[in-house]
Amino acid sequence: MKPKDLLIQFITQKNKNTIQTAHGAEYYAKLFFEQILPQIAQISNQDRYGYHGLTHTTQVAMFGLDIAYTINQEPLPVLLAAGLHDCARTNDEWCTEHGPHAVPIAREFLATHYPHISVADTNKILYAIENHTTGRYAPDGVSACLWDGDRIRLSWEWGYKPKFFNTARGKQIASMSQTEQKKYMIKQDNFLINNKIRTAKEIQDDRDFDKIIEHTRFKTR
Fold first, then answer.
1. 26-50: per-residue pLDDT in tens?
2. Angle, helices 54-70/75-84, rounded to nearest 10 degrees
3. Residue 140 belongs to what domain range?
């Protein structure tokens, strides 16, 4: 069954936990890279590369997917929230308004591409996006997964502060040593490669272009 067919099955299934159990992380990762991300790329204000580019979006989605399974959270709303959370960004500066500004873009996107998602899940996605820069205590699993996933990189770069995290898995990843971080990323890369979701070249190219963009931006400041 193709990802699109499985997505329809997911949306129309009454017992969503059955779908989560039946389809593992490889299905949802493939759904994100093959369907959700290309759709978002067409409506997002983000650049492809850079500190808050779409490469950052993909990483937040992967962190969020990892966390979702540890709290029995349906992965699809998490992937949509992660994919859309920075869609209103136009630069890499500190900004608390891009979350609220993303809400109307995200609402239209969901209505266009995912109209059968429940009102409750839609509201959770929009809340998670709107409050991802300032929210502290997540009211549901979607916000918990997005906020933790988005803040892991900051912890790796600036130091881990547990008060900014809502899940045990998020705290575990965020508090990893540099050696553990490298092992985690290698494991994640191998997961994508072995399941034929991405190639090693695609992964490395994204990282190389991110470095070029960041180096250029730093030199021009």
1. 999 999 999 999 999 999 988 888 8
2. 160
3. 17-220
Q: Is residue 204 part of a domain?
A: yes
Nearest CA among 97, 91, 114 for reference residue 40: 114
- The mean pLDDT value for 160-169 works out to 97
Q: Which two tokens stand for residue 4?
A: 């699109």
The domain that holds 88 is classified in CATH as: 1.10.3210.10
Spatial separation of the C-alpha atoms in residues 39 and 5, rounded to whole Å: 17
How far is the CA of 66 from the CAs of 29, 79, 181, in angstroms? Answer: 10, 11, 14
Using a cut of 0.90, tell me whether the model's pTM lies above it.
no
Residue listed under structure tokens 């949509």 = 80
- Does residue 42 lie in a domain region? yes
203 within a domain of the structure (yes/no): yes
CA dihedral defined by 195, 70, 147, 115, rounded to 10 degrees?
70
In a domain, residue 10? The reply is: no
